[in-house]
Structures are given as C-alpha cells and as structure tokens.
Amino acid sequence: MDVPESDCGFVKESDLLFHCNQCDKELVRKIAQLLLPGLATACVDNTTGLFKSPASVAVVMRKEMVDYLRQTSQMYFTEAVGQGDDIANMVEEFSDEPTEIISGFVDDFASSKWNLFSHVSAWLSSESREDKIDDFVQEMETNVFWSTDRREAIAEILIRNVDLKRAFHCSTKFDSAQQFAEHETQCSFRILGCTNKGCKTKFSAIHAEKHNSECPFKVIPCEQKCSERIVRHDMDRHCITICPMKLVNCPFYQVGCHSAFPQCNLEKHCSECLRSHLLYVLQVLHKQEASVEELRRRVQLLEKSHTLSELSEAVDVRSLTLVVKEQEAKMKKLERDLSNVRDNQKLAKNVK
Asked: Which of 66, 96, 315, 339 is at 20 to 30 A from 11, Cα to Cα?
C-alpha cells in the first residue's frame, strides 16, 4: 500500500493556483531512486536480531520516513529564510546540491532506526547486511510496494524545500490563469517527450539539448563520414561491419603490403598497386630461387600478357597466386614449345 497522496503534499492546494511548481525531471528521478534503498536500510537495521522481517515494519517505516523528510526539509528551508537580512549569505551557505542534502536526510533517518543489536555488533560493516538490503530493495520493486510516481512526487516537494537558489525548480507566481498558461509553454522545467522514433524518455526542457546529444534513438550522420545516416545505438555495429568507410588492411597484408584504407577503396587500391602485389606474390612463390631483378622481369612479362584484366580482378593473395601460377605455367609451356621448334629447325639443317 502506497503513501496516500495527502501525505506527499507539503504545500496547500490554494498556494498552487497560478504558481509554477515544475522541477528538474532528471534530479527528481535521481532523488526518487534514493528513497527505496533508504527505506530498505531502515527496515533491515531496525529488525536485525529480532524475530521480525523487514517487510513487517515497511508500511509504518515508510510513513515515518516521509514525515521525517517533510519536517527536516521544511526546517532546512525555515532556518535559511529565518535569517532575515542575511538571506543572501545564508543561501550561499546552504547551497549544496539537493541530491547531497536529501541523501543526508535519508541517511540520518536510516541511522536513527538502528536497534540495540545494530549498535553493539559488527553488523553495520558486514557484507550480509548489504546483501539483505539489496534483496529487500528488489523485493519492494517486484511487489511495487512504493511506486516510482509516488516517490517522484515526494522528491519534487523535497527539491522545492531545499533548492534555495531555485536552480532545479521553478517557483514563479502569476496573477492570472492566462499568464500561468503562457508560462507553462515556456518554463525551462516543463516536461517534454523525445520526438525520436522509439524513444519514450521524458525530460525537463532545460535538458532537451543534452538528451538530443545522447539519445540512442536519434538518427545521425555516420561517424566515419560515409553517406549513411544511422540510429545512434546502431552506430558502433555499423562502423565495424558494413560501413564503406571502415578501415581495412590490404588483402595482400600477409605477403608484404601493409596499406590500410576505407573498404570502399579496395578495388581502386588493388588496381593501382597491382605491380607491387605481383612482386610480393612472386617473392613468396619463388622465395630464394630468383633475384629481385628476375622477379621484376617476370612482373613485366605478366603485365604485358593478354590477361592483365584478369590479374587486376584478383583482389586477394589466393586468387592472384592462382592466376600467377596459371600464367607462369603457360609461359613455361610456350618457352618449351619455342625451344622444341628451334631444336627441330636445327635438326632439319643438319639432315640437309
């Protein structure tokens, strides 16, 4: 059972007429997240060593916690306002970030619920205590014991009480409903919804630019400058898989070409560097059997052959090696045939 809505309000309804009470949504979520662990800590420490479970005191403890936070935050505000002419100096003195202030309130409440066993044992520093607190937080979340909406309603009121600089909430008052209505469309803390397809996040207008720069559902230009526009949460996968501008090593890297280039330039690179790739492959094929000059002569012979287009289409070591071997075999056969023709010509002369 959640805290009744009346328990969450610290300000009279009449005071809210023509009075903007919007708060920083991001800060509201952050503070709401503090409340459940704080309640779990109080319940666990209060029942340690007793024949009770944390759940058995949770309802009463929650009510006490809300009352404590309400009263403490009101006292915080009253202490600052009560300084009269020194209010400016007091605001500076009480200018801690609201999360730190309210976290301190929650910790103070939880520590006030230690029982005798907690005080006289090493319980507070034990791992089993932390595990028990985490388990009870999970149990309350599963059972929706204290809904997010209710905790955020409390968080908003706490923020209004301790944010003396009004850096995280709007407290502007208006003389008419029309003025208030106009302000609602312009307030820096008004709630906006993300317009990117698939994103359901809500945030205060003051954070619109920040959310837009981080939203995982926003479609943005490729980080590697290809022509595609990609959803931000798919960017990494795009860049390391199908992006045409992804840097790749030359397919002849293992035989000596250590160039790196965008994968869309693969064919261009292989075409422009065909001579060097041929030389690398021949060096591997013939190893120490031929000199560099001899290998270069073979490259020239291959380039002059009628299969140059076939060579240029070979874009990896295996395919180019097969083509080279095939062409070298043809050239060797041609050399043998020519040698046989010469031998036969010599033999015919001798017979005459």
From this structure: 96
